[in-house]
Amino acid sequence: MRLLIIAIFVLQNITGSAQLSVSHLKIExxxxxxxxxxxxxxxxxxxxSSQNNVLQTAYQVLVSDDENLLKKNIGNIWGSxxxxxxTSIQIEYKGKQLASTKKYFWKVKVWxxxxxxxxxxxxxxxxxxxxxxxxxxxxxxxYDEPVDSLRIFPHVHQNGKKSWGTRRNVLPLMRKEFxxxxxxxSAAAYICGLGHFELYMNGKKIGDHFLDPGWTDYAKHAQYVxxxxxxxxxxxxxxxxxxxxxxxxxxxxxxxxKMTGAYGHxxxxxxTIIEYSDGSIENLISDESWQTFSSPIIYSxxxxxxxxxxxxxxxxxxxxxxxxxxxxxxxxxxEKEWLNVIITKGPGQLQSQMQExxxxxxxxxxxxxxxxxxxxxxxxxxxxxxxxxxLVCYLT
Length: 396
What we know:
Blueprint: H1 2-19, E1 20-27, E2 34-36, E3 42-49, E4 56-64, H2 67-71, E5 78-79, E6 83-84, E7 91-92, E8 103-112, E9 117-119, E10 123-127, E11 140-142, E12 152-157, E13 172-180, E14 184-194, E15 196-201, E16 204-205, E17 209-210, E18 221-228, E19 236-245, E20 250-251, E21 259-262, E22 267-276, E23 281-285, E24 291-294, E25 297-301, E26 305-308, H3 322-326, H4 330-335, E27 339-340, E28 342-344, E29 349-352, E30 358-359, E31 366-373, E32 376-382, E33 388-394
Parallel strand pairs: 2-10, 18-29
Antiparallel strand pairs: 1-3, 3-7, 4-5, 4-6, 4-8, 8-9, 8-10, 11-22, 11-28, 12-21, 13-19, 13-24, 14-18, 14-22, 15-16, 15-19, 17-30, 20-21, 22-23, 24-27, 25-26, 31-32, 32-33
């Protein structure tokens, strides 16, 4: 009889655990976010149950800077103990002081009104750069800057007039080569490129974001974005490349003249943190050692579209030994010689981009094409019953 009672008790607990689960763990309303600036972040989660009328009656949050400790239910950074409450959103962190750039792991245990207990999987977040000093002397770098008389902010409406001129500009590429001599444990890139940027490591675009960072009042502040690049680096030679665009930071003339503005020419700032398996840390920052060149994008406007000259492409520009390989062709070197970047200034305050990023959600195939002249071809892409995208290509 005693064995039967024990068996029934165990069966009830197994069944209860299966009937309750906790999921959708979020920090600051994001799943596993990178770049949390809030030193008292807020936790949220959801209960899932196969039973009806289930309510949470208590919870316990554990936070650790070591995932293995958390697997042993040790929260060396914060352990909330068992809190009698039905709240599961906006639970404020109340543990030890959180450090810039550090990665933390967390999980939650919940109890419900049916006697069930459930424990979540492990989630994580990485802290942002909490102070300007945390950028470790990283500098704003660019290709060039307009004279002060050509800066236009706040933006102004021109009512179709051409009074501000065409102001053709350079959309720059930035690059830097570096060496990784030891085994990597983790690596993260903290970067702001104005108006917009794309980050490349060893010839590969990092992340699936589009039009980073989000728009702000650039006279006051800008947003930076964090990417986990642990798997994108390799022992030995590496190269980082950044392509910059105008966005709302710089609106050139031509094609669209209703509104214009110019906080400055495109620029960037970056700090990359490489943590090695032996515990040592190395920083790669944007400074005078970077090089720059104009990109194949010869015109870019947030309203007026973009012109891309494929003749100006430089294969391998974001890969290691790119400049070494170029020197094998003296003529190419003379025509496309990379320059040293300039040190410039950017917005005084930098904040982590915590909103969900824009992403490319759909691509359109070419329906047909028509050659207007020997050097002009029109490509038509259909994306709805009534609308079409028309691309005009000039072949030179």
